[in-house]
Write a structure and sequence with these properties.
There is one protein chain. This protein is mostly beta strands and about 325 residues long. It has a domain of about 130 residues: Beta Barrel (Lipocalin). Helix content is about 5%, strand content about 60%. The protein is built from one helix and 21 strands. It has a 20-stranded antiparallel barrel. A hairpin with a 2-residue loop joins strand 1 and strand 2. The two termini are about 35 Å apart. About 15% of the residues are buried. The N terminus is likely disordered.
Length: about 325
Amino acid sequence: MIPNYASKFALITTLFSLLAQAQVPETFTRADFSLVGPVKSCVVKANYGEETFEFDRVGKLIKSETRYSDTDYDITYYRYRDSLLKERRDEVYRDRVFDEQTSIAHFYQRDTTGPPRLMERIVSYDRTFQEQVVYYFGDAGRLSRIVRSDAEGVDETTVEYTVFKEEETASYYQNGDLKKSVRTSRRQGPAGVQTTELTKEFVQGEPVKAVERTMDAGNRLIREVTFAFDRDKGSFVPSRTIDFTYNPQNFTESETIVTHSANKGDAATAKKETRNFVYQMDGHKPGNWIRQIITPQNTMVVRQIEYYQPQPEKAAKDSLPD
């Protein structure tokens, strides 16, 4: 769940960039933007810029647009077949001119005749850049290997899974060097089972930074801790902790941010800040918020939401022609 939009500017581009490094490309739905009901489009306006998200009738994201100014903007299109992502096109416009060199198209092809695999072909619009990524899956449909090839050569990432004391760890090795590990654990909390995911990143096998995210039984983010690696101590130390609370409508009610001095994790020198969120609803049933007021900063995020009109249920149409 997205806590607030101010910290998620250019969300889609960032997420896909991160996902492509480690796992299978994902699709997004209304729920990823704290939207409920038959939302057709949502325009988000804030002091950081403007973003527009468009959805099909079943709730999948089909277009996102990020505007930095009236003349500079990025548009991403998502096209599906049989409810699976088939194409993603990232188009870049500067001074209202389409930039072929930095605009990129992604094409996806699935193969289930043998061990399942997903092939991603990446091509720039001017045809000067091309890359291919193949994702291989093993037991229980889990990602086991990623092979990335371009003009400079081939990189291979393997994924190893281990279980210790009911905690599962996925370790990602790129050409034999550990690049990332993700440890997942679950425990009984006051309101159900909580899931904690600790992601560590490495450079040349050496630890660099980490993020620990804890989700409640409703899959809501309730705590996020960012760590830096202290070489003197030989261990990770917290640099920032954010605790989230939610209102009865499942919107973020508050964020309490603790920033530790010089990444040393010293509570005595930590700075604490609390941000509260107040919402104005649109009156639709089910409803969505159209204004988010953040205090004590007194900043505001405004959403313009358009809904689909009711119609008899029909199967979702593909966004690609036959």
